[in-house]
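The pair is set out directly below:
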Amino acid sequence: MDGPSVPLLQRFDKSSRLLLCTLMSGPEAALAALRTLQRSRSGEDPGQGFDWQDFTEKLCALEPVLQGPEKTLSLKPLLLLLPVLCQRNLFSLLLTVKSVVPNDLLVRLLEVSKQGPSSDLWVQRLNDFLQVELQEKNSLTPVLLTDACQQQLKDLCQKVVAPCSSTPGLEKKLSWYVKQTDPCLAVDEIAPTSASQIGKNKKVSKESISPEDERQGKRARLEVDESDSEHFKQHAVEQGAGAAGTGNELMTKSFGSEDVHSQINKIYQGSQKEETEMKGASRGSQMDSAAEVPNYVKEHVPKLKELLTMHCDYFDGTVPQELQILNECTPNQLESLCSLLELSECPENELLQFCTWLVAMSPDLSYSYATILAGKLFLPRVLTLTEPASWPLTTALMMFCSKYARPVCCTLIPSILQAPGKGLEQMKLVCKVIEECLEPEYVRLVFSQIVEMPWSEDLLTVVHSLLERQVELSAELFNLVVSNVCHMAQEFAKSMYYAKLVLTLLTKYQSSITSVHQYRLSGVLDLNETILKKSLQIALKQVNSG
């Protein structure tokens, strides 16, 4: 059966029919369905405004069906009449939006799914994963991997991670490997000795394996000891200038009294100069880039350019076979290929078409390749914005981020936020991505990087957007956020942006605020000179009473 008949689909309401048709559209339909739910209720969590009760009842309803060569009449739930591809996408979607779907409905769907055991292993495993998510912590969970498979994975991880001990810096590239952080965080690290010492912290000189843990393991400080100020910051500023590659990391080191951020500015200005020179050399530089790309790769360039021009106004669900060449290039060849395709300068409708292909392409791009493309496709465009970002650019960025969120969070967003000359339009676009695209884990990842940056008036809007998401933060990361807020109290005493940020912190994170935080934040309120001071004091009293 290719799919449920039209009369069966007509039993669903309009939004449910749209969701089912989307889920049957192809292998990447779960992502498309998620975007459909996001568009249906803008500003809410995906799926929150959807009628899951009615949708579930319709899927679980029994329908007459003829089975076997003898055409025996029997009753089967409509869920089991859906194509296997649709069932895969449905349970993939439910895993993503499970927080907004009532648990009893999820349990009911799982029970119905087990009434007719599927021969499709993907459906079975997705059901197992969903069941694990629903079970209580103290209950037994199904074993998703055999003992032999678990041992093989453990051996593989040990082989991959082992070289890190002998090769300094190699562990930074293993962003998928998360090392357990120290759960013991002394609360008195952020306790002030006097009112004038607001924002002073101890520095933790421990270095973690993943970029996220490395950032979370550091302490934001009001004053940094010159003798202990050596640290590394990873970002991809050079990617906008075509210097991105596998594991490209820009490491800035402060020596003596030299400010680390002036170093960043110098490096960034140098990369911008290289980018300008690259754009100035038209045909000559194109020929140089072409010389670095093998002939079998160059053969696809004219066809891809033609397809971008022809298909920029619609998408028929198919990905050009020529695009698979992206996974066959080396990082340097990929950079050169991007230059030959002129992805940094192509019209924005072609950019949107290219990102539509990227999202639908299988297999997925690796982290390093997605990082290169993020720098090539978006960084130059975003940094030159002087007016609100256009719909094609915004949509392309959000589509790319929906599939490759980690490269966007680890390289693109930090590069934008630390770029000299960044303005309101850049901050608005970053805020939009944070508010509408990022899952909680990636919001925390951006948080962990922002606490290390010097906070400016523009950056406060981004911090405010992060706080508005109200994601659960670790005690360590929340301490860093409070420390930064306290540190900037005097500088932004008259800033309405800052006052709104503090108000959001007091109202959205009441349960995370300790007595030490309250003491420090009371000093922040004493310094505030805005019309929101009274509201801030009331909010702090509510925290105290709670």
About this structure: Strands lie at 62-67, 72-77.
